[in-house]
Write a structure and sequence with these properties.
single chain
Length: 376
């Protein structure tokens, strides 16, 4: 039976239902409709009745003193908030789940921390994402809840990569890969960003054997998705597939849930000197400001600054990167800004930081970036 028909039937039955637990379960389940619509390839449109229904279900779950139902309700509300771009609300709902994690089973506990890490990465609190994943990964054996552990580990690797803890990120990605392998190597799009982080680190260090390994992992992870699916974006970035990367940047729907992947795509374009259409950058910049997506904002302003040779945009990008503690991005911006304005001290400071990371990208891509003009 189609999902819509099930909802219609459920709403009809709800009017005569008197079992509090059944009513709460149904009301909370309605809140996951946007998620299933997106999973089915449909555009996300949140019915305003859904959050109202979930909040009613949450009140009933609290009356029942049922922690799993309460967690499900908060998860649904977080998903609704995320799908509408309200990332502060989504993060807060995840935090509320963590408040009573000692009453949750392992899967639900890991999921709460993974969602909090996800939202933290979107808004640029990479340290918060690293901290919340460390708290659970260090005390929980991944084999006891492998799917949820894989999700948390992927965000751990991603946050560590953004912070510049590259060796630690590679360790986290390797643990995630082991869990993924134990699950028979599924099409785990929810973990691809962690594998992409590892691929980017190896590529930046000019370690082709390592980068090739992670590209192969991404191939196995992403290739099950249909051609043209946004879920293939991590693989396109790792492969430096210019057409597909630019196509991903141009898709407005990508901003709904995965601006972290768009940020990595824009970063690659800045590295490689690939001009991005100005309307796409304008749209991304506006959305990043409105939704508080500071890592995306920094990458977009960096790309614009490189394309337009605008030092003020590079300085704005650096200020954001400094605020969110994105160490590798700060270093690249120092090098790029110093080269642009002829400030040897700033460029040298960036070069030293990149050397400390083992990042050799500017040695090979910096020349390509220098002459980039206005976007075409």
């Amino acid at each position: 039976m189609p999902l819509h028909a099930l909802v219609v039937e459920g709403d009809a039955l709800l009017a005569g239902a008197h079992d509090t637990r059944a009513v709460a379960t149904y009301l909370i389940a309605r809140g996951f409709l946007p998620f299933w619509q997106a999973a089915g390839g449909r555009s996300i449109a949140v019915d305003p009745r859904e959050p109202v229904a979930v909040k009613r279900g949450l009140r009933l779950a609290r009356r029942l003193a049922d922690p799993l139902l309460q967690s499900a309700a908060l998860d649904a509300l977080a998903g609704i908030a995320q799908s509408t771009g309200d990332h502060a609300e989504a993060r807060e709902r995840a935090r509320q789940r963590i408040e009573f994690e000692d009453r949750l089973d392992l899967t639900e506990r890991l999921d709460a921390h993974a969602f909090f890490a996800w939202e933290s990465c979107l808004v640029g609190d990479f340290a918060g994402a690293e901290r919340t994943t460390r708290e659970v990964v260090q005390v929980i054996e991944p084999a006891r809840a492998p799917t949820a552990a894989l999700h948390a580990l992927a965000w751990r690797a991603f946050s560590q990569a953004m912070l510049g803890s590259w060796d630690d990120a590679l360790v986290s990605a390797a643990v995630a890969e082991a869990v993924w392998t134990s699950l028979a190597r599924p099409a785990a799009g929810y973990a691809a960003h962690g594998f992409l982080a590892a691929a980017e680190i190896c590529a930046a260090r000019d370690d082709e054997a390592c980068a090739g390994h992670w590209r192969a992992v991404l191939e196995a992870t992403c290739s099950a998705f249909p051609p043209g699916s946004f879920a293939r974006t991590p693989l396109a970035v790792a492969r430096r597939d210019r057409r597909r990367v630019l196509d991903a940047i141009a898709r407005p729907v990508a901003l709904v849930e995965r601006p972290h992947l768009i940020a990595r795509a824009v970063s690659l374009c800045a590295d490689a000197g690939w001009p991005v259409q100005r309307p796409a950058l304008d749209r991304l910049e506006q959305a990043a400001v409105v939704q508080g997506l500071w890592p995306l904002l920094a990458e977009v302003r960096r790309a614009r600054g490189m394309q337009e040779r605008d030092a003020s945009l590079l300085r704005a990008a650096m200020a954001t990167a400094l605020e969110i503690g994105q160490r590798p991005l700060v270093a690249r911006l120092q090098l790029e800004l110093g080269r642009l304005v002829g400030d040897a001290a700033t460029a040298d400071a960036g070069r030293r930081e990149l050397d400390a990371l083992g990042d050799r990208t500017p040695l090979t891509a910096g020349t390509a970036r220098s002459p980039v003009g206005a976007a075409g």
